[in-house]
């Protein structure tokens, strides 16, 4: 069996540190996930990424602090207004603090994420951040995953002790969601202008998304300078408007991860690549970051994902060890050895 020389040439240049172009990324994404070319792609991305990041990995932990029928109306989300089966609820600040202390107790967590619905109480969020800053180690990174906000609010978050924000202009935004794509982009620009680390992702990838669509979303993160790039597949949610479209395999997700890893070689701001949800194929295809989760989760049908889909920090640590990473990057950006003794 002869591999496509065009693809092999793209991969050879990537090994030399040259990020593939948009058109080359489209070609890489159009390979069948089970093809030899896709296998070479994942292997090259894995090798290049480990070299780039020193074979170091990171664990992030997200707390979903509230549940309600979200006006964002995302057709792939378990909280979307019009199709959610959840009863509204909100974690108390004491519960959020307990979750944060649990996530950060072992010193393995790089960043703690706070997630809300699209509409959220900004003042309450600031109060929560202040509480966490009083109780967590000074070096602990705090990141928000919330709805749209402006430049002034971004600066207030930064002043309160927030280090970064996860914000995405998602695939088919405004079509599969009720949100304004331009507003999503303005929030991203506010995050960058306020000096916050910008966490981004190619998501939520489904079987219907073309290679061209994926390329456009991947390159937005590169062109605007994301701190973290990633890929996430859409998860099947029974009763959601997009459930009939199904979901891609972890193997296909790993192919997208590999393209993200190679395409972001040209983005000096990108310091890590994540795969959502955590899996070993993605971690051997260019990703070096995974998320632990507790509380609400838009990809889950249980109120507390830690008893269902969500992994805990120890699960993530074991997975990273099994994927062959030799270090964890802690919140202070120092390295912790990831070996059998440390795992115990």
Layout of helices and strands, plus pairs?
Layout: H1 5-15, H2 22-29, H3 36-52, E1 56-64, E2 66-67, E3 89-90, H4 93-104, E4 109-115, H5 122-135, E5 141-145, H6 151-160, E6 164-166, H7 181-193, E7 197-199, E8 202-205, H8 211-224, E9 228-233, H9 250-263, E10 272-276, H10 280-283, E11 289-295, H11 313-322, E12 327-329, E13 335-337, H12 340-343
Parallel strand pairs: 1-4, 1-11, 1-12, 4-5, 5-6, 6-7, 8-9, 9-10
Antiparallel strand pairs: 2-3, 12-13
Helix pairs in contact: 1-3, 2-8, 2-9, 3-9, 4-5, 5-6, 6-7
Which features does this protein show?
3-stranded parallel β-sheet; alpha/beta; single chain; 344 residues
Plain-language structure description:
The protein is of the alpha/beta class. It has twelve helices and 13 strands. The strands form three sheets. Strands 1, 4, 5, 6, 7, 11, 12 and 13 form an eight-stranded mixed sheet that branches. A three-stranded parallel sheet has the order 8-9-10. A two-stranded antiparallel sheet has the order 2-3. Strand 4 (109-115), helix 5 and strand 5 form a beta-alpha-beta unit. Helix 3 packs across helix 9 (250-263). The N and C termini lie far apart (44 Å).
